[in-house]
Amino acid sequence: MDTMTLWHLTGWEFAALAFAAFLVGFSKTAVSGANTVSLAIFAAVLPARASTGILLPVLIAGDILAVLTYRRHAHWPTLWRLFPAVGAGVIVGTLFLVWADDAIVRTSIGAILLLMAGVTVWRRRQAEADGEPGADGPDGSTSRAGRVKAHSYGVLGGFTTMVANAGGPVMSMYLLSAGFRKLGFLGTSAFFFLIVNVSKLPFSAGLGLIDGRSLLIDAALLVFVVPGAFIGKWAVSRINQRLFERLVIAATVVGGLQLLVA
């Protein structure tokens, strides 16, 4: 029995999942946050809870390709500040999944994403008005306020990535608000999500979201992640910093709206 028959997929549905996997590769090496479109496609084609478990290995494949591409640009002090809070968020998200239904999960995350996108745009406009577009650079989170911001975004990132694989936009907003430039943004994001997504595997398996059936369809979809990653690597060098930031924020807004209206 082939994978499509096992999941009762039509040709068009499998094509949609393949395109979503391609977008995962592209988002990991070009515009982080764009994979919220992939999240929506997976949730539309597959049962909502099952879709999160199937998407996770696809995301990890994209993370590995992103790390191989941008490993020299990661900012590890930022990562070490984030990980404890993210771990707490993952645990809270796991407990939340035990009882919350899909509607509550989607509405909550969608509202959070839109709120953070609005706050990030406001903060950056204020910084530009003050003539300090880079005032919150990667080392700026050593202050008390910076640590509070890192912990807040870390908990939210862990929570949203656990319940809906939607942590990308959350961390995109944090890294933009911290003043990361394009390559530092992508390198730090790549290592962050590889480590976080791998750590989610036992939780997802324990919830029954990953099993033999889900891994079969993952095996069929992984091949589409690779060309997406290569095209993303080609495209990112042709995107200037301002356009890059606008695309990331736009992808976050689109993802938030998709979750709210789904």
TrEMBL record:
Q: Is-annotated flag, keyword Cytoplasm?
A: no
Primary place of residence? Answer: membrane
The question of whether rRNA processing is a record keyword is answered with no
Kindly list the places in or outside the cell where this protein is found, as annotated in its UniProt entry.
Cell membrane
- GO cellular component term of the entry, any: plasma membrane
Membrane disposition: Multi-pass membrane protein
- InterPro entries this protein is in? TM_pro_TauE-like (IPR002781), TSUP (IPR052017)
For this protein, the record's Pfam families field holds: TauE
- Residue ranges of the TM segments: 49-70, 82-99, 105-122, 183-203, 215-236
Q: Which UniProt keywords apply?
A: Cell membrane, Membrane, Transmembrane, Transmembrane helix, Transport
Q: Which domain of life is it from?
A: Bacteria
UniProt record similarity statement: Belongs to the 4-toluene sulfonate uptake permease (TSUP) (TC 2.A.102) family.
List the PANTHER family hit by this protein, alphabetically.
MEMBRANE TRANSPORTER PROTEIN YDHB-RELATED, TRANSMEMBRANE PROTEIN YFCA
Q: What is this protein called?
A: Probable membrane transporter protein
